[in-house]
């Protein structure tokens, strides 16, 4: 019974999402003291070692030169997204950063239109505008953020966060372009190894080595980061995407819990209402795209391949 419960895809996904929120909380707590540059470089190093070991253990074929060039570009963009999002975590409340981070899903459609010429429906345009109305509400709080002046810079945090979401939308479209050519293990390997190769020499050259006490924390971040990817891949292999995708928004609940428990952060009502609007907009975009595909293929949504 217990073994069957642990193998349930919904439970696996919830655990992975909670772990992802835990990573964000750990970054928020560790980055100011350890240094964001060290955290990124060593987190990707340990994640890259683990990802490369899995890649070799599964005997995946050596990537082509075209794949290496493509994933190097994507990996550098991934590094930019991680840097800006982690910085935003140090300047914003955990739940706020999580809620506003959902806007990456709203940006995928316009980015896909620019990059690969995908059509955008009027419903998608309307849902996207509604979602950014939710963003405007989420970032406005009559009572303030409860942040002591001089300790954080909310404006820079918001700029960094939205820079990260725009970059991540491009990453998602790039993944869509390449997903049929490489498997998830190969993609995960590049996602970790490329940022490590790019970041580690610069970090060590400019700032030296981090304090030894920080190394175990970086190792934990690397292992947890790869574990989240592994668990989500496992969950999506065992259940339809439309069942699991809405669970990703439970990250807001976990972030609120971790923010309250570890940083004494109290999200205001405008954040919750704005987040609800953002999430509803994301779900409209996601399911509208799926049902449009159903109309074009003449198949029920449940029969469409995941």
TrEMBL record:
It is found in: Membrane. Its main location: membrane. Keywords: Membrane, Transmembrane, Transmembrane helix. Residues 10-139, 156-286 form the EamA domain. The keyword Secreted does not apply. Pfam families: EamA. It comes from the Bacteria. The keyword DNA damage does not apply. The chain crosses the membrane at residues 36-55, 75-92, 98-115, 122-140, 155-175, 187-209, 215-237, 244-263, 269-287. InterPro entries: EamA_dom, EmrE-like. It is a multi-pass membrane protein. One of its GO terms (cellular component) is membrane. Belongs to the drug/metabolite transporter (DMT) superfamily. 10 TMS drug/metabolite exporter (DME) (TC 2.A.7.3) family. This is DMT family transporter. It comes from Henriciella mobilis.
